[in-house]
Design a protein that fits this description.
alpha+beta; 34% strand; three-stranded antiparallel β-sheet; 2 domains
């Protein structure tokens, strides 16, 4: 017996909808069950910062003259360690086990680092930077809040207190998932609805 085309289409659509709901529920459980960490945020290229109803995320930290780049910037796992109320990169490794030897929290991702430039005759010292790529790059939010967050990010200046943070959840699988943004003490939670 041949099933009519409209019934087949409806069955496939139902399976796709069920798979999507299962994916959203599984990601929600993974996000809720992970270890919550906080990372400072910096502004990105102003032309790309606000495009539509989302904020472009950039996890870049300034390195002062007395700081150095963490070891092994090439690797698929980053070891994070707590420092004050935020997490910072302790190094990178090829495997989760190797990353755990460098720091208490391994997460899938990469980082790039530029060491500070020391003072030379006639040349001022320049700070360095460390940028994390954890596979999280956007926070979708309504236009009014996105514009406000963009303004705060642009107003942040090196050497001043950080006003913008991303709150991530690192699951047992090592993936970082975005939970919220903390802007001037106000928390903007990720919402599926």
């Amino acid at each position: 017996m041949k099933v009519p085309a409209p019934h087949r289409i409806l069955a496939v659509a139902g399976l796709c909808a069920a798979a999507l709901v299962a994916l959203v529920v599984a990601e929600g459980f993974a996000r809720d069950g992970g270890q919550e960490i906080t990372l400072p945020m910096e502004a990105v290229d102003p032309r790309a910062l606000l495009s539509g109803h989302y904020v472009q995320l950039n996890f870049t930290s300034r390195l002062e003259a007395n700081e150095t780049c963490p070891p092994n910037s090439d690797g698929e796992w980053i070891a994070l360690r707590p420092e004050n109320n935020i997490y910072v990169a302790a190094g990178a490794a090829e495997s989760r086990d190797q990353a755990e030897r460098l720091g208490p929290l391994p997460v899938k991702g990469t980082f790039t680092c530029s060491a500070p430039t020391p003072a030379q005759p006639g040349v001022e010292p320049a700070p360095g930077w460390l940028s994390l790529d954890l596979g999280v790059d956007r926070f979708h939010i309504n236009q009014a809040d996105a514009t406000r967050i963009e303004r705060v990010l642009r107003e942040q200046r090196p050497g001043q207190e950080t006003r913008a943070f991303a709150i991530l959840s690192v699951g047992r699988d090592g993936r970082a998932r975005l939970r919220a943004l903390l802007i001037d003490g106000e928390r903007f939670d990720l919402s599926w609805l």
